[in-house]
Write a structure and sequence with these properties.
This protein is an alpha/beta fold and 253 residues long. It folds into 2 domains: 3-220, no CATH class; 223-253. It has helices spanning 12-20, 63-69, 99-102, 105-111, 142-145, 154-166, 190-204, 223-227, 230-249, and strands at residues 3-7, 25-30, 39-42, 47-50, 73-80, 94-95, 115-117, 119-124, 135-140, 176-180, 207-211. The strands form 2 sheets. Strands 8-5-2-9-10-1-11 form a 7-stranded parallel β-sheet, sandwiched between helices. A hairpin with a 4-residue loop joins strand 3 (39-42) and strand 4 (47-50). The longest helix is centred in the last third of the chain and has 20 residues, at 230-249.
């Protein structure tokens, strides 16, 4: 019987996998964000290097990085909509071809505590043909309702994506599904979220398990935040974020 884990924060999923002593999972990760911060993936070699993510505290942006280096994931297919993915994410997974790591790639790889094999693929939502046999279906609600999207388009976007989702021919029924609300990244669409969960349970004749407690995320305080006036710091952060997004729009990572 399929089990659906309902989460508030995405990094709760790693705690579930740890409690199950799960290993070698194949994961279909439907999410606006990669949640693999601090990971460098050599796509040609299909290997992953830790460039700080697994050594950082566990959070929503790093939980897959931790899972990969704990041996819990052997394959991940990241599915995101457009907008979404690396070009719209300020903190994202790095590739061996990225300009930002090309000159220091050898150094980063040498400094890494080691690499692990990782079968990795990234797809847009329209390219995704559905689940494959044995995959763990992991859904972040922001793949449908990210607050990056205009608020007045969210309702139609959710309905469009939900209908598309449930009209798929799921020939492979997942044994486990997780779905998290991620309130920091999703518009306040709790009723639609709950409706989606019920439809998901009906579609797969699944039981629902809810998790309210979650491990705290690490709090990072920039040294600049400590010394700069708050208004100036916010302006500088905005400029930095917009500059990074501009670079991503021009395929510079």
């Amino acid at each position: 019987m399929t089990t659906i884990y309902v989460l508030e924060k995405h990094h709760q999923l790693l705690e579930i996998w740890r409690s199950q002593n799960a290993t070698n999972l194949c994961v279909a990760h439907l999410d606006f964000h990669c949640d693999m911060h601090g990971l460098l993936i050599d796509r040609a070699a299909q290997r992953a290097y830790d460039i700080g993510g697994a050594r950082a505290g566990l959070g929503q942006g790093t939980f897959l990085t931790h899972a990969i280096f704990e041996g819990r994931i052997q394959r991940v297919r990241w599915v995101h909509d457009v907008p979404g993915g690396r070009r719209d994410d300020l903190v994202t997974v790095r590739y061996e071809t990225d300009l930002s790591v090309r000159l220091t790639r050898g150094h980063l790889m040498r400094q890494s505590p080691g690499s692990v094999p990782l079968a990795y693929e990234v797809l847009t939502y329209s390219e995704w043909s559905g689940l494959e046999a044995g995959e763990f279906l992991d859904i972040c609600w922001d793949v449908f309702a990210c607050n990056y999207y205009a608020a007045n388009t969210i309702e139609s976007r959710i309905e469009s994506r939900v209908n598309t989702f449930f009209e798929r021919d799921f020939t492979c029924v997942p044994e486990q599904i997780s779905i998290c609300y991620s309130p920091e990244y999703s518009h306040p669409t709790r009723p639609q979220f709950e409706s989606f969960i019920q439809r998901l349970a009906e579609r797969f004749q699944a039981k629902i398990e809810r998790f309210s407690d979650y491990p705290p995320e690490p709090v990072y305080t920039s040294r600049y935040k400590k010394v700069l006036p708050r208004p100036l710091y916010k302006v500088l952060c905005t400029v930095k974020d917009q500059s990074n997004l501009w670079l991503r729009r021009h395929d510079i990572y």
